[in-house]
């Protein structure tokens, strides 16, 4: 199973969270996670079946550009919201 690492900002906690999920593609990972834990994470990352514009998903440290990206069975997947600054 792949391990999804999530920042606190997406899971509503105070620390990074990890969860193991089955799936051969990014889409399958988030759909399977939603089936087990509810749609909140998937809905935070995906919109209209694609990765949201300001969310970055990395598989084994490599950025993916779509939900059909392959995910090896023992991969580490990171979800990182884009950071923005202000004055």
From TrEMBL:
InterPro entries in alphabetical order: Beta-grasp_dom_sf (IPR012675), Mopterin_synth/thiamin_S_b (IPR016155), Sulfur_Carrier/Prot_Modifier (IPR052045), ThiS/MoaD-like (IPR003749)
Gene3D superfamilies referenced in this protein's UniProt entry, alphabetically: 3.10.20.30
Domain of life: Archaea
Protein name: MoaD/ThiS family protein
């Amino acid at each position: 199973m792949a391990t999804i690492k999530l920042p606190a900002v997406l899971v509503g906690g105070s620390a990074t969270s990890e969860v193991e999920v089955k799936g051969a593609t990014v889409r399958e990972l988030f759909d399977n996670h939603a089936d087990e834990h509810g749609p909140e994470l998937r809905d935070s990352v995906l919109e209209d079946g694609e990765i949201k514009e300001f969310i970055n998903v990395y598989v084994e440290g490599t950025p993916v550009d779509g939900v059909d990206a392959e995910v090896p069975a023992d991969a580490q997947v990171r979800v990182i919201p884009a950071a923005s600054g202000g004055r």
